[in-house]
Amino acid sequence: MRSPHPLRVSVLAAVAAGGVAGSLLRYALTLVFPASSSGFPWTIFVVNVVGCFALGALPALAAVREHPLLPPLLGTGVLGGFTTMSTYAEQARALADNGHVVLAGTYVLGTLFAALLAVAVAQRLTSRPERQLFEDEEGDL
Amino acid sequence: MTWLFVVLGAAVGAPLRYVLGHLLDDRMPSGTMLVNWVGSFLLGWFTALGLGDHLMALLGTGFCGAFTTYSSFAVQSYDRGRGLGTTIVLLTLGPALFLCASGFALGSLA
Fold it and tell me: Smallest Cα–Cα separation from A8: which of A52, A72, A85?
C-alpha cells in the first residue's frame, strides 16, 4: 500500500495550496460560529463529519481521479486542512477539565461514529477500483 | 491580518503531514497516526502557554489544524477492515487525547 511514487514538488505544492484553503475555510467557520466553552462543539463537529463524507466521496469523481494532482490537492490538501484531530482533542480536553466530562465523551464518540458513518455512506458512491486509484494518487494522506 | 498567520501555519503543516504519510503510511498508517499524535500534543501545549491571537492562528489553527486530519483517519480506519480499523481508531484517539492533555499540563507548569 505504500506509495511507489517519489516525492514530487508538484504534489507538495498542491497539498500546501489545498491545505491553506481548507484551513482558511475551517478558520472562517469558527469565526462565524464560535464554540462556547460549555456547549457541544458543533462547528468542528460539522467540519469534521462533512470533511469525512467529502473524502469518502471524492474517488467517485472521474475528473478528480483522472488528474493526478487533484487527489492530493483536494483530498490530502483541502480536506486534510479542513478537518482536524488537534482541535477536536483540545476541545474534549477543555470540556473534561471544566467538569463537562459526559459532554466531552459524547463529543469524542459522537464525532467518531458520525465520521465513520459519513465515510460508509459516501463510499457507496464509489467502487473499489476507484478508491484504489485515489489511494494510489495519495488523495487520502 | 490574522488569517495570514493561518495561511503560513497551514502551508507548513499540510505538506509535512503529506510527507510523513508518504514515507510511513502502509497497511498501518503510521505517518497519519504520528501527525495526529504530535499535532494534538502541540495544540494542548500551545493552548496552555497563553499565546496571543496571531501566534495561535499560526501555530494552532494553521499549523496543528492542517498538520492533523480527521478525514484521512476516518477513511483509513474504515477501509482497513474491522480488525485493523478498530486498532487504528484506538491507537489514534487514545494517544491523541492523552497527549493533548499532557501537552496542556506541560504548558501549564511555567
Answer: A72
